[in-house]
Request: fold
Amino acid sequence: MRGLLICVRCGHHASVTAGTIFQDSHKPLTMWFRAIWWVTSQKTVVSALGLQRVLGSCSYKTAWTMLQKLRRAMVRPGREGLSGRVEVDETYLGAVEEGVRGRKSLKKALIAIAAEEDGKTVGRVRMRRIRNASAKSLQGFIAAAVEPGSVVHTDGWEGYAGLETKGYTHDVTPIRDGHASKLLPRVHRVVSLLKRWLLGTHQGAVSHEHLDAYLDEFTFRFNRRTSSYRGKLFFRLLQNAVAVSPLRYQAIVKHVRRRNPQNHNI
Reply:
């Protein structure tokens, strides 16, 4: 059969796209390549509507699904963690909540952020939405984002206590007088850039269900911000796309309350 690989021993037929994000797609690979090139060529956040306009011959639902799959591919399987000296902190995304103080929230999303110290500048970053500011959530994020043996620099929040037992050197700087941005400047610089970047998407109104995908996209772009060659970004994303497992549309919208993707804040 045309377009299939055939095993010379057992005669099994397999598509070259099997096991990749392109699996079961009815769109030609050339359309996917155009989508990847457009996504990696943009410096700001991309939208499904923009991708639909570029492709010209697909529905909004198709463009939205392709974009979600590409965002998934922005996380390379088995990528190495941050290392050296790493700042870690949390931030909330969402509107101000009356009567809610400290590390509590009723509706806002809590984001954990880790940023490598590279002299006075920021190296690589990692970020993830977490359930709360407990030790389980924060230290689980650190274990996934930072290599053991690194120096983890945090404020004095109790959720970070005990990192030494997890194989890290813990540098604690208690925050006084509300000057967290001065004590953990790299993380707060990244937070500022993230919030400004998200404003390009429906004025920052990103649903919690899809926030992780946006964090992955921001991380992919930020960690490659010094690359002046767009072709390299295209190659990296395409390389990841054939390494991650397939993702069906039903799985993408499984936990979304509103099933119509055109109503999603994406």
Notes: Residues 208-222 form the longest helix (15 residues).
